[in-house]
Design brief:
Layout (H helix, E strand, L loop, with lengths): L2 H21 L2 H4 L6 H35 L2 E8 L6 E4 L5 E4 L4 E7 L2 E14 L6 H4 L4 E6 L2 E14 L6 E13 L7 E4 L2 E6 L2 E2 L3 E2 L2 H5 L5 E8 H9 L5 E4 L8 E7 L3 H11 L2 E7 L2 E6 L1
Parallel strand pairs: 5-6, 14-17
Antiparallel strand pairs: 1-4, 2-3, 3-5, 4-5, 5-7, 6-7, 7-8, 8-9, 8-10, 10-11, 10-12, 13-15, 16-17
Amino acid sequence: MDHKKLSRHAKAHSLHDIQRMLASFEDDILPNIASKDEILHRARQRQLKKKAAGASALALCGLLLGAYCYNPAYQQYELATARGEQASIRLRDGSQIMLNTDSHVQVQERLRSREITLSRGEAGFHVAHAEHPLLRRFERSFQVSAGEMLIIDIGTVFNVQKPSAADASVTVLDGEIAVGIKGAEAPMIHLTKGQSLSNQQRRLSAPALANLDAVQAWQTGHIVFDRTPLPAALKNFQRYADFNVQIQDAELKDLQINGQFKIHNYQHFMQILPYVAAVRVEQTAAKEWKIAKK
């Protein structure tokens, strides 16, 4: 036998040996080998899972974007005071709201903003901000609604008084705010420390300088009058106590009052009034008074 025949015989014998050895494992191997249909089915399942994962991620992104745009409220609470009472509340971010007599606020903690509605009375706001300027870019906005007026904090301490359903006044004690009419297209007016303005229905007044001592005196339990007409001075005391006063002479309505007084001691004011003005003061009943010219 030549070398070529021997080589072919060796190769054929080797292949035969390999087939014979594998035959003993066929029963164990073949059940674990997937068929063509199974392979195609598994491929389709992997594609469906990838599509489902992509759709879930897209839905999650849409949900987060929708929540960001909708700006939902995740916490809401109210604070109110009766006549003669004062109270304060500190928000979770460190901002403080101080309520004067007979006042009511609603606080809404939202995803992108802190929104406060002053429905009646008077409130002072001390808004907390991050110390680093870069972090302030990510802070939630702080805004106050009072009647038709909308106030947006820029970094400040301010006071808001709401004497009627639609009208309000705001004074900046420190920092800066932006003030406008809700829903109006006109640009907002920026106020800085010492400036004040008010609205009548949907019209804003021009900014004016304010007496800051008089504006924030209530926070220390005082009332400050600075050339205040007598009826307005009495009305201010009546915010804290229940009493009536009859002014007998019309010209006394122009009498100007100056000075600082305790908010809960209107009786002291009535007692010293005859010593600072040409008037007679008479107490006719427990909570009834008369003021007349001398």
